[in-house]
Amino acid sequence: MNHTDIRTAVTDLLFTPGLDLDQAADRHFAPDYRQRTDGRWDSRTEFLTHIAHLRGVVAGGSVEVHDELAVGDRYADRHTVTVTKTDGSMVRMEVYVFAEFAPDGRFRRIEETTLMLEGAEADRNLGSAR
User: Fold this and answer.
1) 41 has which bridge partners?
2) How far apart, in whole angstroms, are the C-alpha atoms of residue 33 and residue 28?
3) Is 49 strand, coil or helix?
4) How many CB atoms lie within 10 A of CB 42?
5) How far apart are CA 67 and CA 83, in angstroms?
6) pLDDT tens-digit profile of 55-113?
7) What pLDDT is recorded for position 130?
8) Distance of CA 71 to the CA centre of its chain
9) Residue 8 DSSP label
10) Coil vs helix vs strand at 123
11) For residues 9 and 101, is the Cβ–Cβ distance under 8 A?
C-alpha cells in the first residue's frame, strides 16, 4: 500500500509556504480523520483549526524521524519537530505517534504524545494550541 508519512504530512502542513491548507490536508488526511494529542480528541475540522493557528506563529522548521514502522493499515513513529516561530524563538518537541491509514493511504486516525525538549514554558501546548 502506498501511504503518507508524518514527515511529509507535517512538512506540507507547516513548512511549505504557499501550499493551501485544505490542499495539504486532503493529501494526507481522510475526510473522517480524527486526532488525539496528549489525551485530547479533535475532529478533522478542529485539527485544521489548530494547524491554521500554527501557520500564523511558525516561520519554518523541520521534522526528523528517528523510528518509523508501517504494517498494513497501521503506522507508528517517533520524531522530533523543530520549529522557528515568527518571533524568532525556537521550539523542539519529540512526538510519539500511533496511527491508522484509510484504504487510500491517508491518515484516518493519529494518537500522539508530545514531549517538549526545548522552548519556553508557554510553548508547552504548541501541539494542541489554537
Assistant:
1) 36
2) 10
3) helix
4) 18
5) 20
6) 999 999 999 999 999 999 999 999 999 999 999 999 999 999 999 999 999 999 999 99
7) 55
8) 20
9) H
10) helix
11) no
Beta bridge partners of 82: 62, 92
Instruction: Please give the grid coordinates belonging to residue 124.
Output: 508547552
Find where cell 514531549 sits: 115
Q: What are phi and psi of 103, to 5 degrees?
A: -55, -25
DSSP state, 126? T
Within 8 A by CB and 6+ apart from 26, the residues are none
Q: What nine digits make up the cell of 54?
A: 500554527
Burial class (CB in 10 A: 0-12, 13-18, 19+), 87: exposed
> What's the CA gap between 10 and 8, in Å, rounded?
6
pTM: 0.91
7's CB contacts (< 8 A; 6+ apart) are 63, 65, 79
DSSP H helical ranges for 4-125: 6-14, 21-28, 44-57
* Sign (positive or negative) of CA dihedral 2, 46, 35, 67: positive
